[in-house]
Amino acid sequence: GLVGRNGVGKSTLLRIVTGELAPTGGSATVRGRLGVLPQALEPPPGASVADLLGVAEALARLKRVEAGEGTPDDLAEADWGLEARLDAALAEVDLAGVDLARPAASLSGGQVTRARLAGLLASEPDLLILDEPTNNLDAAARDLLAGVLGRWKGGAIVVSHDRALLRQMDRIVELTTLGAQVYGGDYDLYAE
Prior knowledge:
There is one protein chain. Helices cover 41% and strands 15% of the residues. It has nine helices and six strands. The strands form two sheets. The protein has a three-stranded mixed β-sheet. A three-stranded parallel β-sheet has the order 2-3-4, sandwiched between helices. Helix 5 packs across helix 6 (109-123). The radius of gyration is 18 Å and the shape is globular.
């Protein structure tokens, strides 16, 4: 869990970790694949749920191959396990059976967050980076997110002010203007 006052640089630190921003000094090295859930989740105009999940192109490739219209590149790049991973991920975030062609703009803010999380889970990253993931979620969806994180086998960096979620973390990193301090344990141990 990454905590700190508003404006101290938590989102900037995440942008450095993801390679979106270069550090002003030193370097940042990341090994493995990242799955990033940004704070701002407004779907782009005209986007479908498949676009929101980040799988529209991969699903189109599979459909071309299944229809016998795929190119050699389609065959080489086809992700044959994608649909099964998507079904499992959507079920895990309580969106089983959602129409992937549905306009993303028709989803509630909480559904957008959960759909984006499902897309990350289906992509099987090594590290999840979640920036204020509970902002648009009701109590039931916050509990669902905590459960997903509790079952997650990879690493996670979670920026949050949600103390209930931070109580699920095994380590808290406090970011201040003086730097970062690591505290072993959950939010309650950090608060002590």
